[in-house]
Design brief:
The protein is of the alpha+beta class. The protein has a 4-stranded antiparallel β-sheet. A hairpin with a 2-residue loop joins strand 3 and strand 4. The protein starts with 20 loop residues before the first strand and ends in a 13-residue tail after the last helix.
Length: 100
């Protein structure tokens, strides 16, 4: 089941309450804006560490079209609410200009 995520307070991508979660589209998959400010990341739940849920980067993307393609590929049911959020993203991640 897809859901839009409430903003957390953590600045660590691996934390369950990471502040830049864009959408959770499966209990074990979510899309975030990376801390580096250069890309979107599809993450998978990676079990527990010290009793806390841990998330690991799976796909690192700069292009919205590819992000949407992978979302459609890996989710079981395409949620129109998640698609609205993703379609509102810029065509290319704004990132830091000049960064490679």
């Amino acid at each position: 089941m897809s859901k839009m995520s409430v903003r957390g307070s953590s600045n660590r991508e691996s934390d369950d309450d990471y502040s830049k979660v864009l959408a959770t589209f499966d209990p074990n998959c979510r899309i975030i804006d990376g801390t580096c400010g250069l890309q979107w990341i599809i993450q998978k739940r990676d079990g527990q560490r010290a009793g806390r849920t841990r998330w690991t980067g799976w796909h690192y993307l700069k292009r919205r079209e590819r992000l949407i393609d992978l979302y459609r590929q890996f989710c079981y049911v395409v949620d129109p609410n998640v698609l609205v959020v993703l379609q509102q993203l810029p065509e290319i991640h704004p990132g830091r200009r000049g960064a490679k």
